[in-house]
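User: Batch of two.

Assistant: Item 1 of 2:
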Amino acid sequence: MTVSANRFLLEIDGIAGQIEVTEVNAGGITHTPHTYQPGNRPNPARGLGNFEVEEVSFVQARGLGTTATQLVQWLMDCLQGREIRKRNLRVITLDEAGRVPVETVEYLSCLPTGYKPDNFSGSSSDVATFTFTVIPEDMRVIFGRNRVTGVNDFFNRF
């Protein structure tokens, strides 16, 4: 079953209310596995290597309740060292009717890394937006009710 890219929800732990976003630039995982090393050095466990979870950014329309204020306050608290709180973020893809979750990508232990108001133009009729960026430590994917283990869950077994 295919789904439209325009049917999704965004949730962030600790941010009250629905987050109305127009676009999510989802990050993925990149992995550099260890390779076989000839000689007398021990070989690493097959497949284990360095991994990195990419940044996640989303575009939100301005003037939508207190969500923007909460996001910017979270960023400022982290920047000024008042309260460095990691939060989980979920991008939920919905079915064609927009009611049933088909896939959830959960980004774990995110810290905010950026806030950028988009450009303004006197001749534009577009909605004013801003872009907010976070960097997660890990991610996992949930298809329907089937959870795929996160990368850190996998590496912590060894």
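Item 2 of 2:
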Amino acid sequence: MSIDFTYPTASAAPYLANANPRGLVPLGMPEKRVMHKLDVVDENGGSLPVLTRDQNSTISAAMLILEAEGTLAAGGVGGLEQSVRRQLADICGMRRRGGDWPTEEMRLIRVRRALRRFVMAVDLPLLSEASAKWAQRRTLWSDDVMRGSILQLARRFVFFVEVGAQPGTRRIVKMSYQERVERDSSGQMARFLEGFGLRSFPTGFLTRGVFGADSYHAEIEVPTELVIKTAELGRVLVYRSRTGMGITTEVLSRESGVHLAHLFAGGRERVDPPDIPSDAVVDEMVGFIDLRLALRPGLLWPPFVISLATTGILAAGLALTAEGVATRPEAAAAIIVVLPAVAAAYIVPGEHHLVRRMYKALRLLVLCASGISFVAAATLALDLPHDVKVIWWKTLGGVSCTITVLLFAALAHSILAARNRPA
């Protein structure tokens, strides 16, 4: 992923000169897990320093504690209790003291324990009445925005990169790492359709960069076997007004039907909250990049044509058999067996390991389509009764026809996804 941004000027963000002298830039909010093969470089190809886990967790804890103090102040509650402060830091994964070196398992235990105390404060009102710290936990967990921030930082962290930029300068940061793609769809039917290429594969990630930079440009490239059906850069704003809480979603940039997506948000007017009441106060802003991926049509044409040909040969064989035409097993077997040999090169749609994992079901479908020809040829080569051969061919013809229909539907979806619709 490549991010092109302009560092805010002093007039737009006067606090940066003193508060951020190292030029720290938030690139995203990945999940708390190992980022394999992480590589962060600038526009000249030079490596950029990233914050350590302890540094990131310290900043995240400071952000969460500051938000908690504001929430308590708005509710008329006293200063943040030390135990509550420590639990908020535990949620962010911050070390408790200089000699504290918790394992990954211990960090997870601390997060679960801290979250359990916040939940208990709401579920057991008597605890909130007994002490100030439980009352604070209840206040914080009852606030929708604060609870969302706690849950978000329990799973994710703000990924900072030190670019050393001066206000007003334009920088390009390129970041790459490997992680397991999580499906944001729910339900077995959705997963079934995605695995067979009948539905776009959804993925995405959160980012904070769209709120601070004068301009923001994200470049997203997918494996050559895939096409980006839609790519959206946007933000979600949670606000409060006299009429109550509200949520609004704004898409800042959108592209579709491309292999390389360019998402851009620029101009200070894009930072102003859109379509919210004039008296509203924005409590939370979350930026996101949402992707919908599909297979490239060129990968589906060969298996579809081969499956269609296999279905046609089986149907023709049944029709000729019904007319009393005699078969020559050795010739018929040679004709049919050649089809799986051609299809073998297309059993795996694409060579990228990510594509292999995404479309396991489709790979199995193409493999079955190839195997049908072998089975049909075997029924001819073996000395089977005529009625048994007819039953086998009818069964194989029905399976082949089903596979052909599924491949056609996947191909149609892929062709529609590859169409470049205006953003």
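Residues 297-418 form one domain.
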